[in-house]
Amino acid sequence: MSDPGILTPADPRPPKAGWKGRFRNLPIRQKLKAVILVTSGSAIVLACLSFFVYDSISFKAATVRRLETLGELVANQSTASVSFNDSKSATEILGALSAEGHIDCAVIYDQKGALLARYFRPGFDQARIPRTPDPGPTRIDADFFSVTLPIVLERDRIGSVYLRASLQELLSRRRLNAGIVLGILLAALAASFLLAGRLEGALTRPILTLVTAANAVSRDKNYSLRAEKMADDELGLLTDGFNEMLGQIQARDLALRRGQEELERRVEDRTRELTAEIVERRKVQESLAEREEQYRDLVELSPDAILIHVGGTLVFANGAAAKLFGVPASGDLLNADLLALVHPEWRELVRGQVRKVLDDRQEIPLHEIKIQRPDGKAIDVEAAASPLRYGGKPAAQLVMRDITKRKELDRLKSEFISTVSHELRTPLTSIRGSLGLVIGGVAGPLSPMAKNLIEMANNNSQRLVGLINDILDIEKIAAGKMDFRMKELDLMPLVAQSLEANRSYADQLGVRFLLKEPAPGARALLDQDRFLQIMANLLSNAAKFSPKGGTVEVSVLRRGGRLRISIADHGPGIPEEFKGRIFQKFAQADSSDTRQKGGTGLGLSITRALLERMNGVISFDSRSGEGTTFHVDLPDLGTQVPAPPPLPAPRTRRVLIVEDDADVAQLLRLMIQQLGYSTDLAYTSSQARLFLSENTYDAMTLDLMLPDESGIMLLQRVRKDPATHRLPVIVISAKARQTREQLEGTALSVLDWIDKPIDEAQLSAALREAASGRRSGRSRILHVEDEADLRQLVALNLSPVADVVSVGSLQEARDELQKGPFDLAILDLVLPDGWGMELAPDLGRAGRKPVPIVVFSALDSRQRIREQVVATLIKSKVSHEELLETIRQALELKGGTELRKVAGR
Prior knowledge:
20% strand, Beta-Lactamase, 25 helices, disordered N terminus
């Protein structure tokens, strides 16, 4: 209780209603007791509740584990009973659970989910026994636990067991724990109350003494009084602070007066500063207004369209923007939706770019898009975007430039280059071919002077062909129209092929190629033709700049996840002043290089551009007078064991030449006859079809531009005809490379594509390849599979041995069968529009030899397939190597019996 002799100051605030107000007005002794009791009681309650919850959770988990253990024991013991559908033995096994008093019921189900045996304790309602297996493995309800476990025999699920236990034991344990917790709580509160009564006096006496002193000072205004310090604890510090405060109050008035004087002085100083600042700010505002006016004039007079986009709409557009979008005035674009002004094909891209500018504050560099005027006309523009703030809000500034005329000029340039190159290639074919035949001795022996002059003309014709090809490549790269057919390929065979292809050129210069350090099994993601072009550029450069009798060393090494191809020569090296521009277009170390070594300076520029498109990097090391080493770095895809070489096929003896130009046709005839083949000439598509219907050929050369129909249409007819669908075809045309890129992905099975003028070595190699049977016997495989990723993977794996046509449904497969015959079919059994084997009658219909079938499916259904099936493969159990070997055997075998024994294991 309070000491009646102590004066307490009156509280001007009215007393609060409720328990908070009553607690605030309690004496401090009672407050301390209440705080101690509430704090200790809360801690004890939380501890008891934690114990109660932990015990319930632990007991529940232990009960579930015990129930799962019983379930596993019953499942293991009842395997035989379920296998033989023995209800009696299963019931006996469940009867053993009567020793477990907490088990309400137990049920064993067979494989179909039917009830095989059951057990329930006396008094349990049988209607609560589930008739079918519970879907979940563990279930906890308000009044029971249950588990459902599978009964497994040799990894196959043959049934399930269901156990249900009562929660009575858990409820009894909770009641016991609640009684214990309540007793502990009451005892702890009683102890806390007794201890609080003994301890509160040590805290309240110093406080009450300090209150007495404060009341005296307040009443008498006597600031010389001091409170008695009773201890050196926090209350002692409070007493010291109170006494110190009384000492400072005497100097308060003096300090206040001094402060007021200082404040008045500062106000005067600040007033002068503000006046000067206002004058300066007015000057800055006038300057900003002038600059803003200049900026607006620049924006309005800018030939580029400038727009500002805020909150989904346009809030500013200059005059050039109105002209670009075809509206009378820039005001007509205000509040317009930006995306509505963009061509539909580009809206998603522009939406994402605007989001990056507004949300991420990123700049979008200059790039090409299409816009759409209100009249529907599409315009090609270059656009860039940058972030800014407009009216205090995040905004995007867009700059656009009409490039319609430039695109038209690019198109005209491309057409001009394509036309000129075609017109140049046609006469060059005759010139180069004729010179090659004369050099080869077809016109008899030549005098040394004549042979020298003809070789000079032949070399310059080859240089002219190379120049045309380089110019076309540069134009395609600049226009972004060069297509790449990226495939995972073995690197070393390509390196060896490039060395062999360029060896004759090196021999002419008296230079030797040496493969110094190979990397067996190295694989990379490449476009084969582009890679060979890169190697040809680097090897020819190394040979040109090597001394006569020198050696060009080639090595392939693995370096930190990359493959490095190094080509080293021992020539004069690269001058220091030329190293920085060696990869620029038309770059030459010296203008005399063009005359002495030949070339246009485009090779290395093309090489770097091609490598960048294949995720590669080119670099070089060079010292003047010591030679140069160029390095080509490619991502390493790992090592793969090379497939065994295919068996040779019979030699090719008869070739059909399809060419509308009489001079080129006669030249081809001479070339091919010199290689040991007999020939027939067809100048039109109809003549070629007549020859093919009356004779058997081992290869056909085909020009793409025929008078009656295109060469591609003739090739499609050849591939649809069962008699000629496997005939090796060599395309020889001025547009061979361009057409090949356009037809990428179609299954036309062209053996080789040769540009005019004709490369005799390439033609000879293609005919030898046809004669060896390496590609002349390429089969056509129909792969029916609804998973796109698997279709792509199978096509990639089978590309070395066959041409694969991949479809995703039965209807698509039937459409492909109408287009032409196939040598083998790979079928998935489960397809979106039916059962895979429904296609078997179409594969073996009248008029065609039945097509062998390889079933490649996740479903093992060997008993449901037809005799036409030669192998059954399960996706999850067959590697890509086994699939490839099975397909090889299926293509080699005729009847399929032997293969069925191998693949059916």
